[in-house]
Design brief:
With 113 residues, this protein is mainly alpha-helical. It has one domain. The chain is 84% helix and 0% strand.
């Protein structure tokens, strides 16, 4: 009977490597799943970051186009003001009023060759 007990004891260790192989396989699967999960989390974070960048660029674009419209409007107003200030009729009336100038008489204008 002692031999039978020894045989049973000696047989038990032969089963352990199979169990350890299963644990190794399970450990490898857990590592693979963890790496896959980290990869998916990384992709999700990258997607969120890119969406935030798109939204931010949208705000920047909206602000820039609003500023462009304001500058174009100001440019138009300044062109109108320049045209008004340099109009010949206005300059003539200012020269007559403020400086006391008058149109030249015949013979006062000399044309150079």
């Amino acid at each position: 009977m002692a031999k039978a007990a020894r045989q049973r004891v000696s047989r038990a260790p032969t089963r352990l490597p199979a169990a350890r192989g299963g644990q190794r396989l399970l450990k490898g699967q857990v590592i693979a799943i963890a790496i896959l999960a980290l990869g998916l989390v990384g992709v999700a974070l990258l997607h969120v970051w890119l969406r935030l960048q798109v939204v931010h660029m949208g705000y920047v674009l909206a602000t820039t186009s609003k500023l462009k419209k304001q500058v174009e409007q100001e440019n138009l107003e300044l062109r109108v003001e320049l045209a008004t200030l340099t109009s010949p009729d206005r300059l003539e009336s200012l020269s007559r009023r403020r400086l006391g100038l008058k149109s030249p008489e015949k013979g006062q204008v000399i044309v150079l060759p």
